[in-house]
Design brief:
The structure is a single chain. This protein is mainly alpha-helical and 53 residues long. It is built from 3 helices and no strands. The protein is globular.
Length: 53
């Protein structure tokens, strides 16, 4: 979720989960761009995303 559109800031907890479960590169991108990663236990909610090269 792009927090710049909602006027919010990505939380430290969300960034830490992103770093642990995805990668340090994903963490840096989310931190830099103020993006929250979204999590769900429901596989049908899955949205494949690849980091820009």
């Amino acid at each position: 979720m792009d927090n710049n559109k909602t006027g919010k800031r990505v939380s430290a907890e969300n960034l830490e989960k992103t770093r642990k479960l995805l990668s340090y590169e994903a963490y840096l991108m989310c931190k830099t761009r103020n993006i929250s990663s979204c999590w769900s236990a429901n596989p049908s909610d899955e949205n494949i995303f690849k980091l820009p090269v």
